Amino acid sequence: MDPVTLETGRLILRAFEPGDVEAVHDACQDEDIQFYTPVPVPFGRQDAEKRVREEWPEGWAADKDYVLGAFRKDSAALVGSYCLTKVSAGVYELGYWAVKEQRGRGYSVEAARALCDWGWATLDVHRIEWWAMTGNTGSRAVAERLGFTVEGTLRNRSIANDGRPHDWWVGGLVRA
């Protein structure tokens, strides 16, 4: 599938472009992004290049991983990365990270809602899942504002960048 562009009241969601490498690199220097999301630590410029130029476009081409950057209309500043990833037939996972300076303004809810709405309308979706390491209260707040039901906690679900296993929350949003 070709990447789409989505628009909300305050944001443009579009595929990342080569000119966005520096903004992605800068955002991923944040300790919370490095702890709570699966990015390399340290996160180098080459990691940003690989994602922007290879991995994210390949996800669209394979019709499996739909990653969009959210940018503010008033300043073109990067707000964050938002994606729907195919897990199985009809099931997608919503993933996101937000630039530290852009948090707390409702942008993540706005961007994620637009992406989920696009997914419901465009993809054969009957369930969208959300996963977050316990303690990532910002991510959980966004998911709950989007209407996700937190369905449980998975003990020692994965090894984080600190080398230790961590519990994860899981939630779901199902087609009404």
Automatic annotation (TrEMBL):
A GO molecular-function descriptor: acyltransferase activity
InterPro entries: Acyl_CoA_acyltransferase (IPR016181), GNAT_dom (IPR000182), Ribosomal_N-acetyltransferase (IPR051908)
Catalytic activity, EC: 2.3.-.-
Keywords for the protein's UniProt record, in alphabetical order: Acyltransferase, Transferase
Residue span, N-acetyltransferase domain: 11-175
SUPFAM superfamilies: Acyl-CoA N-acyltransferases (Nat)
Pfam families associated with the record: Acetyltransf_3
Protein name according to UniProt: GNAT family N-acetyltransferase
Organism: Streptomyces tibetensis
